[in-house]
UniProtKB/TrEMBL annotation:
Molecular function as annotated in GO: cytoskeletal motor activity
Membrane protein topology class: Peripheral membrane protein
Gene Ontology annotations of biological process type: bacterial-type flagellum-dependent cell motility; chemotaxis
Naturally occurring in which organism (per UniProt): Kangsaoukella pontilimi
Cell location: Cell membrane
Name by which UniProt lists this protein: Flagellar motor switch protein FliN
Record InterPro entries: FliN-like_C, FliN/MopA/SpaO, FliN_T3SS_HrcQb, SpoA-like_sf
GO CC entries: bacterial-type flagellum basal body; plasma membrane
Length: 94
């Protein structure tokens, strides 16, 4: 994008085109080692979040924002997206 309004300034100028992996955390489970060792297909772990809770967005181990999951395309397609609801301050990211 060459639009000047999209140019990044400050400490991360010049690296704004570097791709990063965004990890979405939908929740956590805390199984025991015994539970992990006895896993079988179709087992279910209960997460610490519900379907309507926000998800956490990470780059590496840095929390960069939060959002809500949304189904993309037509209902039943199974494709997911994230609507961003919060963004961490840039000073927390560098």
């Amino acid at each position: 994008m060459s639009d000047e309004s999209n140019q990044t300034e400050g400490p991360i100028a010049g690296i704004s085109d570097v791709p990063v992996t965004l990890t979405v955390s939908v929740g956590r489970a805390r199984p025991t080692v015994g539970e992990l060792l006895s896993l079988t297909a179709d087992d279910i772990f209960t997460l610490d979040k519900s379907l309507d809770d926000p998800v956490d967005l990470y780059v590496g181990d840095h929390l960069v924002g939060r959002g809500v999951l949304e189904e993309l395309d037509e209902p039943g397609s199974g494709r997911l997206g994230i609507r961003i609801t919060e963004i961490a301050p840039i000073k927390d990211l560098v």
